[in-house]
Amino acid sequence: MDLARQITELKAARNAVILAHNYTVGDVQDSADFVGDSLELAQKAAATAADVIVFCGVHFMAETAAILNPGKTVLMPDQFAGCPMANMITPKELAARTAELPGVKVVTYVNSTAAIKAMSDICCTSANAVKVVQSMGDAEILFVPDQYLGHYVQTRLGKALHLWPGFCPTHRRIRPRDIKEARAAHPEAKVVVHPECMPETIALADHVGSTSGILRFCRESDAREFIIGTELGLLHRLTKENPDKRFYLATELSDCPNMKLTTLEKVFWCLRDLEFVITVPPDIAQQARVPIERMLEVV
Ligand code: 13P
Ligand code: SF4
Fold first, then answer.
1. Domain 85-168 classified CATH 3.40.50.10800?
2. Can you tell me the distance from the alpha carbon of 201 to that of 178, in angstroms, rounded to the nearest whole number?
3. Fewer CB atoms < 10 Å away: N or C end of the chain?
């Protein structure tokens, strides 16, 4: 029996749902009940009636699902799929920085550990960061851990934020010269990038959006060609959903090795053996739930 069919049968037997991020490999996306960006996946995780959530993505996403679903089993097919950006800030470092900024509100990108979320006022994703910061009114904001997303929000709102010096190594590889060279090669193409890119790269784009924001823009645009400045896994949905349009990566180097750790075989083993269970210590989960739920109320 083929793997996809066995996964479908196990899923029914376990009353499980498979959630996959837009960057996972194609056959994993095709096996999922829902594929989306971080915000959509958090919303799906919050609303699911399934007993088991198989999370195909990286660790912080599964942790968020676990925080929102204390009674459910959250599994990752590969528990070593992490996000390097999430490890660029520790609770001790954040405590030291907030002590230097009395009264500051901490806005935390979901690409962070549960322990950092637990110390935050509100969370955000790349899809809602501008709206979330806007919802904080005149408050002084410390934005962690992505300096580039924070810089993008700052530019959009014309408001200065304190920025933590974290970044995504994958998106930092997309350089302004890559965009310029791709534009020279494809002069009719629209340039669409993720807000985790460097400000100099973002400045050259026609549109900036979360992974699902990029999908929406390309679907709705009249343009026929697009230069894509984000992780290369997004090409799967872009090409599948827009067979009449052409997509070029700004650079072939924009791969996230962690997102590629989840394979279809591992999804099967995960459902068969109910491994690997993702848990968050109850006290951390209780505190981290508050800023995540605040975010879900804003959007
Ligand atoms: P999205 O929320 O846009 O899907 O991005 C998540 C992520 O990890 C980007 O690198
Ligand atoms: Fe983290 Fe970047 Fe990979 Fe997204 S693409 S999971 S931010 S390393």
1. yes
2. 9
3. N
**Measured between alpha carbons, how far is 252 from 232 in angstroms, rounded to an integer?**
7
pLDDT digits (tens, 9 = 90+) for 26-80: 999 999 999 999 999 999 999 999 999 999 999 999 999 999 999 999 999 999 9
Distance of CA 231 from the midpoint of ligand 2 (Å) = 8
Please determine whether the domains at 85-168 and 174-249 fall in the same fold group of CATH: yes
Does the pLDDT of residue 201 top 90, yes or no? Answer: yes
- Ligand 2, residues at Cβ distance < 6 Å: 58, 83-85, 111, 168-171, 196, 231, 256, 258-259
- 85 C-alpha to ligand 2 centroid (Å): 7
Residue 256 CA to ligand 2 center (angstroms) comes to 6
With beta carbons less than 8 A apart as the criterion, state whether 274 and 14 touch. yes
Q: Does domain 174-249 have CATH number 3.40.50.10800?
A: yes
Look at residue 194 and tell me whether its pLDDT is greater than 70: yes
CATH architecture of 3-81+259-282: 3-Layer(aba) Sandwich (3.40)
CA dihedral of residues 50, 51, 52, 53 (deg, nearest 10): 40
Distance of CA 210 from the midpoint of ligand 1 (Å): 6
Where in the chain are the domains? 3-81+259-282, 85-168, 174-249
Q: Where are the alpha helices (DSSP H) in the chain?
A: 3-14, 26-31, 38-47, 59-68, 91-100, 114-117, 129-135, 147-157, 169-172, 176-185, 199-202, 211-220, 234-241, 264-273, 282-298
User: In the structure, which protein residues have their CB atom closer than 6 angstroms to any atom of ligand 1?
Assistant: 22, 37-38, 111, 125-127, 168, 196, 210-211, 231
